[in-house]
Amino acid sequence: MCVTGILTIFTTLFLSEKISKPIKKVSEFAKQIGDGDFTRSNMEFEDKELDELLKVMNKSAEYLDKYDKEQKIFFQNISHELRTPLMSMMGYAEAIKYNVMEKEKACNIILEEGDKLKDMIEELLYISRMGSISEELHLSNLDLREILSSCIESKQATAVNISIELICDFDKKPVMYICDEKSLRRAFLNIIENGLRYAKSKMYITCKLINKDIVIIIENDGENINDKDMPYIFQRFYKGDKGKSGIGLSIVKSIIEKHKGNIYCENTNKGVKFTIIFYNLNML
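Structure tokens predicted for histidine kinase:
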């Protein structure tokens, strides 16, 4: 009886050690990830559930490592983008102070640079809210042609100044959709601004109802997007060879998807085409 009891104790201790040891290793790996070390683990376990858990944790570590690197690159880029208008504003302010430049001209440039800075800060604030559960859309049944027309009108002066012609092709009848006007306007403006940056002479903006789907096309006649950049242009923090800050198009994608739509980008013989589709008049 005594021998049996001793054997039972040793068996229990052995099994406990066998079970607790791999769990302790997994726990240490989780702490390592929590401390910001995303090095993947090459441990293997006989237990199928633990082995599956480790695979999931390695996948999470890989994602976090990628996100961390992208974020560092993004902040390097954005610090440069924020510094550029600030330095310009300071330079023209000094020009006014020492009377080395016409005051009105310098003030206009300072205001323009201030607007750029404000836009970048607003995009940073928006991207910080992307994916937030608390973010609410203020929905109304609106004519998308009117939202696009308003965006085009606000960028008309910019287009004229850089000799870009904005060519519109809208349905004659209203193209109604339940949407958040403010956020959808931001998405359209971001694509139009992106197109103006690369267009050579023309941009084409289409808004039509096709077989109950709303199709919006914004196309520019600029250079094609590099093949290596194309798969990543909507990815947050990704900045291609000629990209600006790595924010704008990720915001566009987020907004369109929140409105139950999809956005695609492709190179064409004309240049680059963005296509937004709200399928079968989806209502939010």
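The radius of gyration is 27 Å.
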